[in-house]
Amino acid sequence: MASAAGVSVTTASRVINGSRRTVPESNRLAVLDAAAELGYTADVGAQALARARWDVIDAPHTSR
After folding, report:
1. For 6-23, how does the pLDDT look when each residue is reduced to its tens digit (9 = 90+)?
2. b/e per residue 20-40 (b: at least 16 CB within 10 A)
């Protein structure tokens, strides 16, 4: 998507993920246009896993 839009991967990621960092409007529109052309849809499940903070409780394994 970044190459289709003519921007860096970082810029494309910032646009797609809604980063608060400044991206020039022309680049933002290029990324959004490329995403639409390529049929990009966000994988909400993958995003949730990537951002998850897991609290793990270490429980002893028992055999039955």
Report:
1. 999 999 999 998 888 889
2. eeebeeebbebbbebbeeeee
Is pTM beyond 0.85 here? no
CB-based contacts of 64, cutoff 8 Å, min separation 6: none
User: What are 5's two structure tokens?
Assistant: 């839009």
In terms of Cα–Cα distance, which of 25, 29, 37 is closest to 1? 37
Alpha helices in 1-64, H assignment, sequence order: 2-5, 9-16, 25-38, 44-51
